[in-house]
């Protein structure tokens, strides 16, 4: 073989092997997502197996259909670029995949997907799941400012009805103060911000629906209530647990008695397995106001 031809052959081999390597790097984490955790004793080997599968696939293409390595590489690049431009994946995401798979997945082999979500949730989460995680991270009913705020305003109204309705009046008093003073302030466009209850208190009770939900749940929990948040289309709101039917009827009587000055169109609530939850949205001046959207995409209890 002539020297020039030999050099061209070496250059072609280098080029194809380089493309093969560049194809393996993004392909391995994609393969890893579709295979289950693979244990060898106590060693979680699914990352190595994903790399090996990707490598063997690329070598097979090079061996049998060498020219196909170029369209294979282009296909993987197109997939990655599409996800980059749709903000669902990027080079940092790939690095996070590898870092998580190496550093976290092997330490927590029985929680592979859970840990991967924690490192880079946007790879897998829907908008609803990301919103849930964002708001959950801001809940803190043990904060001293939150607790003191809740205690103060739980004693502000309806104290004379305590002998009749018991601790329900504390929840109703706190609800009345928050919903009488909360003012809607939207977030910046395309920039969702979740404020802690302390931030909302210190800013003068202003914010949007997620800020109100975080505030209401955090303060209610700080005085012993059980709550949950409900996500619907472009909205989130809190619900208060009222207990079984007997407890709910007592709670209902307390609302109709203590909020007699508010216009009523009925109480809005949910009953699930004999347990009752009542709406605490900021859009109403009494607990159990109408739902903005009755369809729930996610419900998270606290």
Explained architecture:
With about 300 residues, the protein is an alpha+beta fold. Helix content is about 55%, strand content about 10%. The chain has helices at about 5-35, 45-65, 70-85, 90-105, 110-120, 125-135, 145-155, 160-165, 170-180, 195-200, 210-220, 245-260, and strands spanning about 40, 45, 185, 205, 225-230, 235-245, 270, 275-280, 300. Strands 7-8-6-5-9 form a five-stranded antiparallel sheet. A two-stranded antiparallel sheet has the order 1-2. The chain has a two-stranded parallel ribbon with strand order 3-4. Strand 1 (about 40) and strand 2 (about 45) form a beta hairpin. The longest helix has about 30 residues, at about 5-35.
Summarize this structure briefly:
By secondary structure, the chain is α+β, with helices and mostly antiparallel strands. Helices cover 54% and strands 12% of the residues.
* Model regions low in confidence, pLDDT < 50 over at least 5 residues: 103-124
User: What coarse outline follows from CA principal-axis ratios?
Assistant: elongated
Could you give the distance between the termini?
75 Å
Summarize the main sheet.
Answer: 5 strands, antiparallel
Structural class: alpha+beta
- Look at the structure and give the mean pLDDT: 79
Give the strand content.
5-15%
């Amino acid at each position: 073989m002539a020297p020039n031809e030999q050099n061209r052959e070496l250059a072609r081999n280098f080029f194809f092997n380089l493309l093969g390597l560049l194809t393996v790097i993004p392909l391995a984490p994609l393969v890893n997502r579709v295979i289950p955790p693979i244990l060898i004793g106590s060693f979680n080997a699914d990352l190595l197996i994903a790399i090996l599968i990707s490598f063997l696939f690329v070598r097979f293409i090079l061996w049998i259909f060498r020219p196909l390595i170029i369209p294979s590489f282009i296909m993987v690049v197109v997939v990655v670029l599409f996800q980059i431009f749709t903000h669902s994946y990027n080079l940092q995401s790939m690095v996070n995949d590898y870092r998580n798979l190496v550093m976290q997945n092997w330490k927590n082999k029985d929680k592979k997907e859970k840990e991967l979500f924690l490192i880079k949730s946007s790879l897998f989460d829907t908008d609803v799941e990301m919103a849930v995680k964002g708001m959950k991270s801001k809940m803190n009913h043990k904060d001293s400012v939150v607790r003191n705020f809740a205690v103060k305003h739980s004693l502000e109204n309806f104290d004379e009805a305590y002998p009749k309705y018991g601790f329900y009046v504390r929840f109703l008093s706190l609800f009345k103060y928050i919903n009488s003073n909360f003012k809607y302030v939207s977030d910046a466009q395309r920039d969702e911000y979740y404020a802690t209850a302390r931030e909302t208190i210190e800013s003068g009770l202003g914010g949007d629906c997620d800020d109100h939900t975080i505030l209401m749940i955090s303060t209610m929990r700080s005085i012993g209530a059980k709550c949950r948040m409900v996500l619907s289309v472009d909205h989130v709101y809190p619900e208060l647990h009222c207990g079984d039917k007997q407890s709910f009827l007592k709670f209902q009587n307390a609302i109709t008695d203590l909020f007699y000055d508010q216009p009523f169109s009925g109480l809005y609530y949910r009953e699930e397995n004999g347990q009752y939850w009542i709406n605490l949205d900021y859009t109403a001046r009494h607990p159990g106001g109408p739902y903005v959207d009755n369809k729930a995409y996610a419900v998270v209890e606290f």
